[in-house]
Design brief:
2 domains; single chain; globular; 4-stranded mixed β-sheet; 5-stranded mixed β-sheet; alpha+beta; about 575 residues; disordered N terminus; D-Maltodextrin-Binding Protein, domain 2; Dipeptide-binding Protein, domain 3
Length: about 575
């Protein structure tokens, strides 16, 4: 499922044997932009919490960070019935929880039956594991075998089973007493949080740090049959300001930093002197876009339309949206904000998405004259260089984005977009809002004209259904429709309905290629640019294999400190 938060994917896989004769010991120091809001994986919905839970918990499957194919994790293998509805999983027999208890089929069944499908537990995981409003049947066959029976074919099923498995023996009581939603909050003693990951949470000092220690029970072994993980500790310093994180990295207080394009000229010359290496692994996942409010609904409290009907008539006009797309000077944005370390985006999926990415979509090159001609074709008129609609209304609207320090580039981009659109004769009023306020307007009050924002991304198109289905909560330009408002939205509903049942990946690609073509043609979201994935990492670590999908430390349990760097 897509969210408005870029969630950290912490994935694990086994690398070749290492040459260091004594790889054990030492610590890795990273940064987090904010405190977690929970240690409960099913309640986590933002990066700060997912960062923690991604280290503590594991799923039955995972994705290879380079091929992006689904591979075993807590499950060793699986079989599927000819009709694609029954999936049987064999679990590993050597997995222990942090407290030494074995992981069994009971934990898997508990995670789904008692937690995900519990109507009293508000978790977004329920959306992923529900098809046509129907739940999956999950049953224990024996201690190490689990069977899922699906109501209909569900092509993303294997990929979705990266869902964390939680311990029944630790959480069953809280569920029976109705306390699960508040269990494992940030006030919980760290050692009470029980997972199967390579490190357990040892210490949490709000506003300062999170300290993880090596899990002595961890099930993975290296190619040389050595116990993993190698590191003694992983420490996250909580540093809200990205500029402060950069300075701490330069001062060698941090071992890693994600490099923004604007910081590249500062940090690149220090590579040798400060003993680190820069890695570039392609375009960011996700998307960045401007979206216009086309919501035709009426506020039940005020009995007034959510959206001014005059403005809505502009935003519903595809000529207006295409003109805006032609007016965005993406090359200039990349040059100024990203130091030319960026990628123009035309469709809803990132080039880093791999197999399902379709580069053959409409391209809206920067062309102000074409933009003006497109507006005139849509019924708009110019008077003394100013833009009006056919009824004589001056085209004027508000453009909002987040004030968060983590979205500082958005503020600068919004100013540049306003400048571009004013060249078309529009009047654009810029508003910077606190992120939660912005999200509240977008998803609850619907009190907005245009917003510059982004969505997280991935390799599975179906997990964006809550954005692209006409009834979706995040179908932000016109959410929660009772029936599709347009024919192209109706076709997207059909594509998602067909795609979820098609088990042939090549046939699924044809469907999702069409989805991307429609999205780029109709432009409910007008895409901007993606930054480059650039990492700076100290030259003291072995087994480092950065990936565009999973980051620099996706194989955290395999990372070790080189002997001459200890």
């Amino acid at each position: 499922m897509k969210t408005l938060f870029v969630l950290l994917a912490v994935l694990f896989f086994t690398l070749p044997a290492i040459a260091d004769s004594n790889p054990y010991g030492g610590q890795l120091v990273l940064s987090a932009s904010s405190d977690p809001k929970t240690f409960n994986d099913l309640m986590a919905s933002e990066t700060s919490s997912a960062l923690v839970t991604g280290i503590l918990f594991e799923g039955l499957t995972r994705q290879d960070p380079f091929t992006l194919k689904v591979i075993p994790n807590l499950a060793t293998s699986w079989t599927v019935s000819p009709d694609g509805l029954q999936w049987t999983f064999a679990l590993r027999r050597d997995v222990l929880w942090f407290d030494g208890m074995p992981l069994t089929a009971e934990d898997v069944v508990f995670t789904f039956r008692d937690l995900i499908y519990n109507p009293k537990i508000p978790t977004s995981s329920k959306d992923i594991f529900t098809v046509d409003g129907k739940e999956f049947k999950v049953e224990r066959i024996d201690d190490y075998t689990v069977r899922f029976t699906l109501p209909r074919k569900f092509a993303p099923f294997l990929r979705s089973l990266s869902q964390s498995i939680l311990p029944k023996h630790c959480l069953e009581k809280s569920v029976k007493e109705g306390r699960f939603t508040f269990t494992w909050g940030i006030d919980t003693p760290p050692h009470d949080i029980v997972g199967t990951g390579p490190f357990y949470l040892d210490e949490y000092q709000p506003g300062e740090r999170l300290v993880f220690k090596r899990n002595p029970h961890y099930w993975k072994k290296s190619a040389a049959k050595k116990s993993l993980p190698y590191l003694d500790k992983v420490i996250f310093l909580i540093i809200p300001d990205p500029d402060a994180s950069l300075l701490k990295f330069i001062d060698k207080e941090l071992d890693y930093i994600a490099v923004r394009g604007q910081d590249y000229p500062l940090i690149k010359p220090l590579e040798t002197k400060k003993d680190f290496t820069l890695y570039e692994s392609g375009a960011d996942f996700g998307s960045s876009f401007v979206v216009f409010n086309q919501n035709p609904g009426v506020n039940a409290k005020t009995n007034k339309p959510y959206m001014n009907p005059v403005k809505r008539s502009w935003f519903e006009n595809v000529h207006f949206r295409r003109a805006v797309a032609h007016a965005l000077d993406k090359k200039r944005i990349i040059q100024i904000l990203f130091n030319e370390l960026g990628y123009g985006q035309d469709g809803p999926m990132s080039p880093s998405s791999g197999f399902f990415y379709n580069p053959q979509v409409s391209n809206y090159a920067y062309d102000l004259e074409k933009a003006k001609a497109t507006l005139e074709a849509g019924g708009f008129v110019y008077r003394q260089g100013l833009l009006y609609d056919a009824k004589g209304n001056r085209v004027e609207f508000n453009l909002s984005t987040s004030t968060s320090s983590q979205h500082s580039e958005n503020i600068q981009m919004a100013y540049m977009i306003r400048s571009d659109l004013e060249k078309l004769g529009m009047k654009v009023n810029f508003q910077s809002l606190e992120f939660n306020t912005l999200v509240g307007k977008l998803m609850a009050s619907y009190d907005w004209d245009a917003i510059l924002i982004g969505l997280s991304g991935g390799v599975e198109p179906h997990f964006g259904k809550n954005v692209w289905a006409s009834s979706g909560q995040l179908h932000m330009w016109n959410p929660k429709q009772k029936s599709p408002a347009t024919e192209w939205e109706r076709r997207l509903d059909e594509i998602y309905s067909q795609g979820v049942e098609e088990l042939d990946e090549n046939k699924r690609k044809i469907l999702y290629d069409e989805f991307q073509v429609i999205a780029a043609r109709e432009l409910p979201m007008i895409y901007t640019v993606l930054g480059a994935n650039i990492y700076a990492v100290r030259n003291r670590f072995g087994n480092l294999k950065p990936s565009a999908y999973a980051g620099a430390f996706h194989n955290l349990e395999e990372i070790y400190i080189k002997a001459d760097k200890k």
